[in-house]
Amino acid sequence: MIVATYSIVACDVDAGQWGVAVQSKFLAVGSVVPWAEPQVGAIATQAHANPTYGPDGLGLLRDGISAQEVVQRLTDADGGRDERQVGVVGGDGDSASYTGSACLQWAGHRTGAGYAAQGNILVGAETVDALAATFEATSGQSLALRLVACLAAAQDAGGDRRGQQSAALLVVERAGGYARLSDVAVDLRVDDHARPVEELRRLHGLHDLLFGVTPREQWLPIEEDLRREVDGRLEELGFESLDSWAGVANLEDRVDGEDAIDPVVLEVLREASP
Question: What is the domain extent for residue 9?
Answer without folding.
Answer: 5-211
